Structures are given as structure tokens and as C-alpha cells.
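Please check what follows.
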Amino acid sequence: MKTLAEPVSRLIEELSRLPGIGPKTASRLTFYLLRSPKDQSEALAKAIMDVKQKIIFCSHCYNITESDPCLICTASQRDQTKVCVVEEPLDVLAIERAQQYNGLYHVLHGAISPVEGIGPEDLKIRELLIRIQREPIEEIILATNPNLEGEATAMYIAKLIVPAGVRVTRLARGLPMGGDLEYADEITLARAFEGRRDM
């Protein structure tokens, strides 16, 4: 016998598909939404729809944006000769919070991970190589996460770029091994940028 109404069980099922949300948390969120005012649930639904309908990837750096190219790529006061390569858009937010970097970005949308079936062709590496040929880039700062996948991705990219004569640096070890950039505090990120080194 079914104990939950179909819309309730469907919402629990959909919420539990989100990363970090198990069935119990999905159930708590669903019942919270049931008790909350209708306008709060509608605002959440609209915010989700707006993200899916209005957010695109910048055709230049592949960060998330509402306009193409994004605000960072079109900011004339930013250093056009430096490009910081990160795994995810959240990493751009973390670095911007530290206020220690004033160049451009390139978002890979992942890291090389044979275990998960992610190879170099699944990332925005080819697009980075095209940028290096077309733009006056003097330095590529590899800011992939300091874990096995991030290190493998950084090494792979460095091997492709060094022969082109562009300086390739890696963030210093101010970041903990196995950690993610999005969880690093501003001081740690600032020290990592100051201590970056050639690869």
C-alpha cells in the first residue's frame, strides 16, 4: 500500500538525485517545502528554472554567465596576458573572493579521471590551446585541485603548453592535498597565488 501521495514521493526522488542529498535529507526538504508558504516554494521553483533557462557558458572562458562573453572576459582592467585554469566555475568564485588575482580564467569543467571515464577530450583543453594561439597570453596558471586527478590534469596540460613557449605555473602548496579550491579560505588562496612556481 502506498503511503505517500505521488507528487510528494516524486519530489523526494528528484531531490535525492542531487549530490550530497540522501533519501532522509530529501524527505526532510520535501516536508519542509510542504509546510512553508506557497510563495517560498514558487520562488525556489522559479530560481531553478531561471538557472536552467538564463545561465550559459561563456564562449571564451567557459565560466557560467548570463551574457556572452562574460563580465570577467570583457573587463578591460584585467590582465589579458595571464589565464588561470580551474576545474569548475566554483573555483573562479573562490579565487575572486581572495582578491589576489586580476587576470582571466579558463574553466575545464572537470579533471582527468580514468576511473570515472573522463579523458582529456571530455574537458575544455583543446579550447585552451586555441586561446593560447589566438591571444597574447604570457602565463598559464594551473589551479586545478591538489588531488590525484587535479595533478594529472595539470601535468597533461603543462606538457602541451610548455613547447608553445608560454610560461606555465602551478599554485603553491598553500592548498591542502586532497582538498577542493571552493573550500579554501582567502588567506590560503592568496598565499598559493603568491608562491606559484614554474612547471
Remarks:
- The helical segments are 6-15, 23-35, 38-54, 89-98, 125-134, 148-161, 186-194.
- The domain at 64-198 is CATH 3.40.1360.10 (Dna Topoisomerase Vi A Subunit; Chain: A, domain 2).
